[in-house]
Amino acid sequence: MEQRNNVTEFVLLGLTQSLQGQKILFVVFLFIYIVTLAGNLLIVVTVLFSSTLGAPMYFFLGYLSFIDAVYSTIVTPNMITDFLHEKKTIYFKACLSQLFLEHLFGGAEILVLVVMAYDRYVAICKPLHYLTTMNQRVCVLLLLLAWLGGFLHAVVQLLFVYNLPFCGPNVIDHFMCDVFPLLKLTCTDTYIIGLIMVANDGGICVVIFVLLLISYGSILYSLRNHSQEGRRKALSTCGSHITVVVLFFVPCIFIYVRPSSTLPIDKSLTVFYTIITPMLNPLIYTLRNSEMKSAMKKLWARKRK
Fold first, then answer.
1. CA gap 241, 216 in Å, rounded
2. What distance lies between CA 179 and its chain's CA centroid?
3. What is the pLDDT of residues 168-214, one digit of tens each?
4. How far is CA 130 from CA 54, 118, 119, 123, 233, in A?
5. What is the reported pTM?
6. Which of 127, 112, 134, 109 is nearest to 234 (CA)?
7. In the chain, what is the greatest distance between 2 CA atoms, to the nearest angstrom?
8. How many CB atoms lie within 10 A of CB 184?
9. Which has fewest Cβ within 10 Å: 9, 163, 190, 244?
10. DSSP string computed for 44-70
11. For residue 110, which of 269, 271, 277 has the smallest C-alpha distance?
């Protein structure tokens, strides 16, 4: 405990050391953050106030958009403000708080994507049982389980990192606090802890990604018995879900499945799944969903009146 307290703050190197590059990135990521908040909150408001979006799919989509908005807020504002400062520091407790919240909302998002895949599986493969299987009580229970899973995942991350001794270097070659960059700064052997982190992060990502691919594969296979219109609608919906799953999971797997090490490309991949993907999700879900676009137009027309 005494060793760890030798480090009271960390210095973040950020994405670039170039002052000109930081000014450009400040404008770029500020724009991305505004678009991310606007897009995701628009979906949340549309789901809340539209009477036509009462299906469980939209219930989960609303919560996914809420998670994306908060998840982006955990990372992006700090990074944006750091572009304006020559020395980018974060206090030890603030670093751990950021780590916990990242994995809380990241873990919850992964499990919400699993729930959404299950919802589509029941809707397409067992349509006669859909309304009874995915009733309101089940939907709320599944959502609570997703939050519980994200919380337990985040607690594991926090407990392991909190008890590590930080007694020397405090420079993190990253734009945010995460497990593997922090493990590099400890003054103890982290090989075993690194393996546990790989299992907790990478293992979960791989297993869930494979399960999601199998689930959507089963859905696509079952479409051979549907009408052409049914296939078109199901393919449009599942195509959006599969796109989001791939965009989120592939970078995560690359970063977390490796042994506890960091590569220069990790920062770019982290930008992609923590900042770019939350911005793209509203576009992916709305552009391919006629019901969502129609509900947004009605909501906008109602507000103009």
1. 9
2. 16
3. 788 888 899 988 888 888 888 888 888 888 888 888 899 999 999 89
4. 14, 11, 8, 5, 17
5. 0.89
6. 127
7. 68
8. 16
9. 163
10. HHHHHH-TT--SHHHHHHHHHHHHHHH
11. 277
